[in-house]
């Protein structure tokens, strides 16, 4: 199975980021995880939220940001990867002059009903 970012339609998810589902079981037939690209525009912040079941990995591919992870604040940039354990409150702010691009891997796969806005 192969997907191409350029053919995928973006949508705004519950946390306010622009998402492209690069690989998701409901669309592509994989089973154990999902992979998405999230884009946060300069100066914008996603809504504070948590996922009760999903463990997430965020990997920065472009831009810079500030990640709030429970009570911890992390400066993130290209090449950084952040682990977000299930149940951990988190949000991210694009702090640079360009949009922040993240690859987001979720296991189990991302589901809207697993997202609690805080």
TrEMBL record:
Keywords noted in UniProt: Isomerase
SUPFAM superfamilies given in the database record: RmlC-like cupins (SSF51182)
Cross-referenced CDD domains: cupin_MJ1618
UniProt entry tagged with the keyword Cell division: no
InterPro entries cross-referenced by the UniProt entry: Cupin_2, PKS_Associated_Protein, RmlC-like_jellyroll, RmlC_Cupin_sf
PANTHER family the record matches: 16.7 KDA PROTEIN IN WHIE LOCUS, CUPIN 2 CONSERVED BARREL DOMAIN-CONTAINING PROTEIN
Protein name: Thermophilic glucose-6-phosphate isomerase
Species: Candidatus Accumulibacter appositus
């Amino acid at each position: 199975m192969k997907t191409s970012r350029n053919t995928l339609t973006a949508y705004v998810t519950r946390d306010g980021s622009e998402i492209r589902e690069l690989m998701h079981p409901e669309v592509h037939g994989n089973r154990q995880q999902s992979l998405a690209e999230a884009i946060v525009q300069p100066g914008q912040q996603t809504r504070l939220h948590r996922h009760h079941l999903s463990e997430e990995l965020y990997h920065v591919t472009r831009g810079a940001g500030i990640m709030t992870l429970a009570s911890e604040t992390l400066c993130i940039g290209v090449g950084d990867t952040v682990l977000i354990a299930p149940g951990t409150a988190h949000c991210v702010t694009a702090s640079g002059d360009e949009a922040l691009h993240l690859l987001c891997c979720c296991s189990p796969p991302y589901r809207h009903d697993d997202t609690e806005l805080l």
